[in-house]
Design goal:
single chain; mainly alpha; two-stranded antiparallel sheet; 5 helices; 53% helix; 11% strand
Length: 97
């Protein structure tokens, strides 16, 4: 079960147990694994429209520019509107150019 500890006023530390073999399987040391896990979680939450780009970058502990660059690696669009939503917006009074 994850352990949750409040570190400071704005942060919380979460401790989870993982099998040691995961690091060898992914060819990553624990620090790299944690960075990738934070980035992957932030990407998924952004993709699901649960957090903004700036919040996702903060979760991933990277700059917004680094987060945008990483989106290509995860095949995630930086735009949170799909084609239908754009068409609907255009139909709601936006002039067509």
């Amino acid at each position: 079960m994850p352990e949750v500890v409040t570190i400071a006023m704005n942060t919380t530390q979460v401790s989870i147990e993982l099998p040691r073999t995961i690091f060898a399987t992914l060819h990553q040391d624990p620090d790299t694994f944690i960075r990738e896990m934070r980035l992957a979680a932030a990407m998924k939450w952004y993709e699901l429209h649960l957090v903004s780009q700036s919040s996702a970058a903060e979760i991933a502990t990277v700059s917004q520019a680094e987060f945008l660059s990483a989106m290509a690696r995860f095949s995630i669009s930086p735009f949170q509107y799909d084609a239908e939503e754009i068409i609907q917006e255009m139909g709601d009074g936006c002039p067509v150019l």
